[in-house]
Amino acid sequence: MGTMDGELFPRTRAEVAPGAVHVPHWLDARTQRTLLDACRAWARPPAGLRTVRTPGGGTMTARQVCLGWHWYPYGYARTVVDGDGAPVKPFPARLGELGRRAAADALGTRAASGAAYDIALVNFYDGDARMGMHRDSDEESDAPVVSLSLGDTCVFRFGNPGTRARPYTDVELRSGDLFVFGGQSRLAYHGVPRVHAGTAPPELGLTGRLNITLRVSGR
Ligand SMILES: O=C(O)CCC(=O)C(=O)O
């Protein structure tokens, strides 16, 4: 672990499946800090960070806040229909620009063209939080999903569109990393089996892990 300069091997970008690209250290320290401050504001009520209940009676261990459209199991709404009922917070234009730039850097300008990002799902992992294998299939758009990581390092499991099981690839996502999945991998199963507590860059000032996914609703 340690600083980038201390790596034995530099972490390099990798296409882990067709259309699924990991770009290490895409966000500089300052942008990470700015995004963290914004996440803290978005997490406040109304329409703030909440525990998501699934129809089977379970709860997700990662807590969540949404911008633009409110995601609930399994759909999108303009208000927090499964929480305090408040209108979802607006999707900031600068996140849309960040999303387009991220998709273009990872997949090329053609894959990113026309991707008008209008949803952010912010997931907060503390303690033993994790996320089971699932597909992002409630959007009506095939635009690439953009994922940004802040804080603790996690194991991100990226699989295939057909099954929750193998083949999949485990990727280490660290603070500042970008992961984009589109094209043939847009509906691939993915999840977070593990977060490594205490691995966040100390200067960021975050205990736990935040993930911001940017999506196009197609609505
Ligand atoms: O936290 C992550 O890196 C993944 C989040 C995720 O899979 C999702 O929001 O659908």
What is the element layout, followed by pairings?
Layout lengths: L13 E4 L2 E4 L5 H14 L20 E5 L2 E3 L2 E3 L15 H15 L1 H4 L6 E7 L5 E4 L10 E7 L2 E5 L10 E5 L4 E4 L8 E6 L13 E7 L4
Antiparallel strand pairs: 1-2, 2-11, 3-6, 4-5, 6-13, 7-12, 8-11, 8-13, 9-10, 9-12
What does this molecule look like?
With 219 residues, the chain is α+β, with helices and mostly antiparallel strands. It is built from 3 helices and 13 strands. The longest helix is centred in the middle third of the chain and has 15 residues, at 93-107. The radius of gyration is 16 Å and the shape is globular. It starts with 13 loop residues before the first strand and ends with a strand. Residues 121, 123, 131, 136, 147, 156, 190, 192, 211, 213 line the site of 2-oxoglutaric acid (AKG).
Number of helices: 3
N-to-C series of helices and strands: EEHEEEHHEEEEEEEE
Mean pLDDT: 96
Low-pLDDT ranges: none
Largest sheet descriptor: 7 strands, antiparallel
Distance from first to last alpha carbon = 42 Å
Which range best describes the helical content: under 10%, 10-25%, 25-40%, 40-55%, 55-70% or over 70%?
10-25%
Number of strands: 13
